[in-house]
Structures are given as C-alpha cells and as structure tokens.
Amino acid sequence: MRKASKTFLITSVIIMTLSGIGLYFYLKQLLQNEIEEELFSNKDRVEHLLEQNPNLLGVPPIMMAEKTEKPHKNILVDTLIYDPLQDEIELFRQLSGTKNINGQEYKVTVRSMVIESEDILSTIVFMFLMVIFLAFIFLFYLNKSRNKKLWKPFFSNLERLKKFSLKADSPLTFEDSEILEFYELNKEIKILTSKIQTDYRNLKQFTEDVSHEMQTPLAIMQAKIDTVINDAEINEVQFHQFSSLQSDISRLKQLNKKLILLAKIENDQFTANETISINNIVEETIENFKELTSIDIQLKEQNTINIIMDPSLATVLCNNLLSNAVRHNLNNDRILITIYDTKLQVINSGNETLDRPDQVFERFYKESRRKDSTGLGLSIVKKICDYYGFLPSYRFRASTELQEGQGKHIFQIDFNLKM
C-alpha cells in the first residue's frame, strides 16, 4: 500500500509538472497569436484612416504612421520601447509594414504591450496548478484511505498466516475481501495449508509407525542371534559372522533412533521446556561416560549456565558432543570440557584438522571409517542448536600453537542468544 501511494505521489507530481509546462507554452503561443492578430487588425485600421487622412501620425508608441520611399513586407518582432505614460521601458510586440496609399508609401507600425499578456499567462498557469494541487491532495488522501480499507483484509490475513502452525488441529481461516484477486488468493492458500496440515499429520504418524515397527523386528533378530550364539555349537568363523551381524543390527537400531530424533526436532515435538543447568547436565554425562571408558575426562567450570530448553534434548546435546570427542580422541589422551561465560567447549586431541570443517555439522558427514559412526551425532547437535537459537562451531588448534605434542579439536556451543 505504501508503494502504491508513493507511486501515485510521484506520478501525480510528474503529471502536474508536465501539465503546467505544457499549459504555459500553449497559452503563451495562444496569447501571442491573439496579440499578432490584434496587431494586424490595428494596422489595417491605421491604413484605412490614412486613406481618409494622409497626415495621420498615430498614437505613439502604440500606433505610428510615417511616409517612406522603400516598401517592405510585414515584420513581427519583440522590442523594448520607452512608455511615457508608465515612465519606464516596456516590452512590446511590434508589427511594421508598408502600404501604398494614394500613390504614397506609408510605413505603419503598431505595438502591443507583452508584459500584460505575461501577467495573464502567469496567473492562469498558477491558478491551474493550484486547482490541480488541491485536487491531488484530495485524491491522495481519498486514495490512501480507500486503499487502507481495501487492503485491511489482506494484512489481517497476512498476520493470521504468520501465526499459522502445522500442529494446529483447526484449519486456517481468512477474512473475506471485496477484491476478487484477494478472494482467489485466500481460497488457494486455505486449500494449500489444509493439504500441508494433512501431509504433516500423515508424515508424523508414518514416522512414529516406522520407528515402532522397525524396533520390534530388530530386537527379535538380535535376540535370535544371541540364542544361536549361546545355545548352538558354532565354529569360530560362524561366531565372528554372527557377532558382526549383531553389531550391524545394533548400529541400525541406533541409526533409526537418531533419525527419529531428528524428525521429532524438525516437527517441533519437544515442548517440555524448563530452566535447567547445563553444568549439571554435563556433570551427569561425564559420570555416565566414566563408566564406559577409561579416558580421563576433566571438567573446568568458570561459570554457571542456566538455560530454558527441553531437558531430554539438553542431555542428547551433551551426550553427542562428548561421544564424538571420545570416539575420535587419539591415544586415550585427556578430554577437556570447559564452561565459561555463555559457552561450552569440548576439546579432544587430534593430528590434523578436518578435510571439510565447514561440513562437520551436516547430516551423514563422516571423516572417520569407524563402523559404529552413523554420521548423525553432530548433525543432531546442530539441529538442537538451530531449534533453540544456539551457535555451534568447530575449530582446530595445531600442535605448533600448544605446548603439548598433539593438536586439538575444539567443539563449542554458545548459549548467549537465549540467555
């Protein structure tokens, strides 16, 4: 609406300017033609009077007649002449020409003051512009108020569309509009949003069904393999094959759980937000990992970070960061977790930086060839951070920058955006 008003304003100003200029030159030409027509008429009158009175001298400086011997054609010029009545020099339009009257050549000169015509012309143009300007002001505010009324349903529907949620059970409703195009737009958007809601519910149900249905057969397969390994007499080759198959099933179960978790995050299914302490979550995570690994995990706390988020996602966030550090740590070196300001850092040793550090948080990105790596751990970290507005980052500190022999992979989460 503002753009339409701005366009109307600019267009109107251009039209007013061009109209004023055009009117000025048109009226100027019209007045000049009238003056010249009057001059020719006055010249004819003077010539007629000369036929009756050869000694007529005219009325200087308006009309003048004098005898001459050289005939010439009519000449129209602008000239400056002193006007004794006005006691100043004035601009006149002058017509001069000769006429043979009773065997004698007479030079007849008639003049008309131009200043008066210029004043008339200026007054006409000024009044025209004033009328156009007042009409423009009236039309501008009329158009603005009219547009506001016409566009009100559009902006109202736009606000409803901004608040639209896929999780809402009720369909999106719009305010009716008198404009056909808006009516058609509202109709199509209602159809589209209803279809999106239906697709979202179907996809959500499909995701939950797939998760449930896959877990059961995988668990059965794993139980049967355990039974075969424990009860049947198998050789060493078969044992390794069954063990490998069991590992693949476990990895498939883990991959399924992580994909389901990503889908739930994207579908906004975590709404149990509460104020939690990142420090406490990290401490619990470290205690759990100490039972699973012999790697020394050290926590350095310089600040306490309290944040509003789903506790289960906070646990997943810390678990995935520490799991990634443990999995890719070199030579069982010490892992350092630092909490300072609004940041959480997880640091583990490494020989060199990643080949594609800008892709480290992308789904299924892996540089390690470990079979137990799904490539989803850090992508889940990124998805949780995006969900809550946190800022994840990665950098590598080379060994030349440190006193220790190994370089360091540093993964950091900045919680500042939600503090």
TrEMBL record:
Residues 209-419 form the Histidine kinase domain. PANTHER family: SENSOR HISTIDINE KINASE TRCS, SENSOR HISTIDINE KINASE YKOH. Keywords: Kinase, Membrane, Phosphoprotein, Transferase, Transmembrane, Transmembrane helix. GO terms for molecular function: phosphorelay sensor kinase activity. It comes from Galbibacter orientalis DSM 19592. It is an enzyme of class 2 (transferase). Its EC number is 2.7.13.3. SUPFAM superfamilies: ATPase domain of HSP90 chaperone/DNA topoisomerase II/histidine kinase, Homodimeric domain of signal transducing histidine kinase. It comes from the Bacteria. SMART domains: HATPase_c (SM00387), HisKA (SM00388). It holds the Pfam family HATPase_c. The chain crosses the membrane at residues 7-27, 120-142. PROSITE patterns: HIS_KIN. It catalyses: ATP + protein L-histidine = ADP + protein N-phospho-L-histidine. This is histidine kinase. The keyword Isomerase does not apply. GO terms for cellular component: plasma membrane.
